[in-house]
Structures are given as C-alpha cells and as structure tokens.
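User: Reviewer 2 asked us to show a designed sequence for the structure in our supplementary figure. I'm pasting the structure tokens here. Could you produce the per-position amino acids so we can include them in the response letter?
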C-alpha cells in the first residue's frame, strides 16, 4: 500500500479527517493502481484540506465527486496520447486520469507554488510518470513547453470562452479540448460557441462519461482543434528544410 506522507499537520483543522473508504467501482476503474488511488484520496483528505485545495466538507465525497468523476473522462481520449491538464490545482483531473489510464502522457500545469509543490510530491510518492510544470496556460513559456498536445483538459477553471482562449494554443491540429463541466455545459456552448470557433475549436458537443460506472455521470464539453492550411504549409516547409 502506498502512503503519502504529511508534513507536521498535527493539530491543524481538517488534518485528522479520515479518508472515505473506496467504493467497489474504484477497483473496476483503477485496476492495479487502486492502492495508489486510495493513497491519493488519503492525501486529499489530509494535506489537501490543510493546504486549502479541498474543502473539509468535500472529504466524505472525495471518491464520487472528485476522484472517480475525473477518472472516467479517459473514455473520451484515444490510447497513448499526450494530455495537458491546465489549472490542475489538487491534481484534478490529471492524477485520477493518470492512475486510470497509465498509457496517457500527462502534464499538470499549475501556477501556484504550494499547489505545484503538492502535485510534485504526489507524483513522486505515487511513482507516476507525470510531469508537473508551474505556470499559467496563457504564458508564452508554457505554450512553448507543452504546446502541441493531443488533448487539453481542465476542471472548474473558467467559462468556456476564456478556457478556449487558454487551451486552443496548446492543442495540436486535430487534437481535442475536453473540459469537465456541470449542468451548464449546453448553455456554455450556446453562449461561447462562436468565440470558441474563432479560436479554432470546432464541433463542440456534450459527452457523458462513466454512464455505466457512476450514479451521476461526468459531463464534459468536447471540441476539436481545427487545422489551418497555413499551419500545414509551414510544417511541410520546415520538413523540407530539415531534409
């Protein structure tokens, strides 16, 4: 059993909260990595609360509302693709996704130091093949480092228009935007769809993930990055110069 260490949290409100027991469906979704998922849950229930990443009232529903809710979005992703989780925060959805889909190449992007430090410690202690990068998705340096991803994902980061503005430059032509949304998903597409299309994200639609596994499926907005003839020509020209 993996154990995520806590750093001197005795006596801190929320530090002694016991993590909820993993439901039966966790074994089905995580398989061989379910012990690591349990360790991650324990860390969210302790350090996550102390650091303000998770509210104390969320502890009893960490599995259903947070961990499993994020793990199932892998249904919308092809095998062995690169995934960038922007504004990762407590590692949601990136860490549950890495545990449920170890074939994915995942990068967590988080601007705040205490959160990025937490994420790096979790990644190290759970021995995950996941990169953690501190920064904002809209920064030029971040675009240079993680741009060209097959999938950019996020959870509770921003309304769709702003989210698309940050995500689109990171997505390869033909790649996907997969954003976890709630009941407002259809409304956001209706409101922000034109802006998203101007930014190169087309075919926006709502998908329900985890229909057969979860009592309440996860709602995601999915869109595709439209390729441009100019971009294709530039790539072709660069290829010729290399030869």
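Assistant: Here is a per-position design you can include in the supplement:
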């Amino acid at each position: 059993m993996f154990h995520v260490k806590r750093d001197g949290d005795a006596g801190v409100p929320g530090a002694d909260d016991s993590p909820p027991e993993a439901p039966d469906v966790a074994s089905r979704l995580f398989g061989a990595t379910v012990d690591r998922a349990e360790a991650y849950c324990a860390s969210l229930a302790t350090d996550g609360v102390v650091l303000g990443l998770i509210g104390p009232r969320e502890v009893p529903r960490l599995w259903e509302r947070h961990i499993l809710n994020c793990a199932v979005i892998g249904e919308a992703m092809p095998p062995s693709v690169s995934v960038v989780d922007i504004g990762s925060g407590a590692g949601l959805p990136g860490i549950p996704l890495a545990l449920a889909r170890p074939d994915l190449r995942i990068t967590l992007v988080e601007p705040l130091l205490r959160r990025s430090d937490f994420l790096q410690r979790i990644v190290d202690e759970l021995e995950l093949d996941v990169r953690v990068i501190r920064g904002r998705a809209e920064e030029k340096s971040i675009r240079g480092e993680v741009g060209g991803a097959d999938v950019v994902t996020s959870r509770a980061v921003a309304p769709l228009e702003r989210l698309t503005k940050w995500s689109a430059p990171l997505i390869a032509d033909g790649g996907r935007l997969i954003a976890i949304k709630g009941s407002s998903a259809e409304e956001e597409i209706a409101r922000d769809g034109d802006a998203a299309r101007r930014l190169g994200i087309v075919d926006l639609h709502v998908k329900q993930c985890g229909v057969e596994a979860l009592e309440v499926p996860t709602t995601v907005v999915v869109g595709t990055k439209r390729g441009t003839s100019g971009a294709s020509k530039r790539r072709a020209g660069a290829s010729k110069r290399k030869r």
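For the response letter, you might also mention the following. The radius of gyration is 18 Å. The first strand starts at residue 82 and ends at 86.
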